[in-house]
Amino acid sequence: MRRREFISLVGFVTAAWPLTANAQRPDRVRRVGVLEGTTATDPEIKLRYKAFEQGLQERGWALGQNLQIDYRWGEGDPNRLNKNAEELVSLAPDVILTTGTSGTGPALRATRSVPIVFVIVPDPVGSGFVNSLAQPGGNATGFLQFEYALSGKWLELLKQIVPSVTRALVLWDPALVSGVGQFAIIQSAATSVGVDVRPVNLANAGEMERVIAEFAQAPNGGLIVTISALSVVHRDLIIALAARHKLPAVYPNDLFIRSGGLISYGTDTVDQYGRAAGYVDRILRGEKPSDLPVQAPTKYELVVNLKAAKAIGLTISPSVLARADEVIE
Questions:
Q1: Do 169 and 108 share a structural domain?
Q2: Which tens digit of pLDDT belongs to each residue from 192-232?
Q3: What's the whole-number mean pLDDT along residues 37-66?
Q4: Which domain holds residue 94?
Q5: Closest CA to 279 of 270, 268, 269, 290
Q6: CA 295, CA 293: separation in Å to the nearest integer?
Q7: In 91-228, which ranges are continuous DSSP H helix?
Q8: From the DSSP assignment, how many helices (H) and strands (E) are in the chain?
Q9: The predicted structure's pLDDT at residue 9
Q10: What percent of the chain has pLDDT above 90?
Q11: Is the distance from CB of 49 to CB of 84 less than 8 angstroms?
């Protein structure tokens, strides 16, 4: 059963179950703010928040009864994210859920008192969000996207699926600490695998399209897409460009593969939103984010799209397919 179908089934079942008699019910409606850097119309992003809402429901919180959730969407625009963060804080929420570095940074600039739970943040210590993983120390805690060492595995994976690759464009957001960190690891691994890497800024879609088109004119090239709100917002364009120019591309999670990308290795992002519901619940019941350690991912997935491989004339080796957690036919 596909995860999308599973989540829908769980949603149906949990909606049918009554809240347990001993569930703690506060004497007022609690308010949760959500600051998301992408778009509300993205079907894959909707899966994440369905998991989040279901996680809260399973812990005794019901929308419209004892819980209100205020969503704000950044649409890949940093200025809009800053404005949305200030707006959410003005609503006096009990806790704010943020996504990634691009969402957590604005939230923490807007408040150092409202509790914040973040998800899929690559480097919360280096970004200044927490003092340490074990003892966050401030008003924020949450869930790591991955350790930076994972970035080097994307380059290794590209070389495994196409041994002839000698050049790679790395699509990144240099405005983020995590963007710089991801590219630094990829660059440091490049010599050992014999690949020359070149960064491309995700902020300018037109420039990205031009650079990829020029890059594809020479042989033995590939793409690596790093994690950022911009890479998610532009993923349809990136996937289309990779297919048009027959470039093998490695993505940071299955969100891209379910949109038609070739191959990904990274954390199960939907799982993180379900786990985040647990931290939000604990904070709503009185615990402090400073006392809740930042948690590392528990699930990593290798996902392969054979249809995308066929479209660019690529055969994925049996050894890679044998390691895959999911193969999309």
A1: no
A2: 999 999 999 999 999 999 999 999 999 999 999 998 889 98
A3: 94
A4: 3-146+267-300
A5: 290
A6: 6
A7: 100-110, 149-161, 177-193, 205-215
A8: 13, 12
A9: 44
A10: 75
A11: no
Confidence of residue 15 (pLDDT cuts 50, 70, 90): very low
309 and 181 in a single domain? The answer is: yes
- Structure token pair of residue 87: 């707006």
What count of other Cβ atoms lies within 10 Å of the Cβ of residue 98? 30
How far apart are alpha carbons 97 and 141 in whole angstroms?
10
Indicate the number of domains in the chain.
2
Matching residue, tokens 């390691």: 323
DSSP-H helix ranges across 111-267: 149-161, 177-193, 205-215, 229-233, 235-244, 254-257
Strand partners, 172: 201
Angle, CA of 133, 138 and 142, to the nearest 5°: 45
Look at the block and give the residue holding tokens 């994925």. Answer: 316
Are 157 and 95 part of one and the same domain? Answer: no
- Assign residue 8 the CATH number of its domain: 3.40.50.2300
Tell me the average pLDDT across 132-139: 96
Show the tokens assigned to 163: 């041994």
* Three-class SS state of 206: helix
Residues 34 and 128 placed together within one structural domain of the fold: yes
- At residue 54, does pLDDT exceed 50? yes
Mean pLDDT within 34-60: 94
**What's the token pair of residue 300?**
């990593």
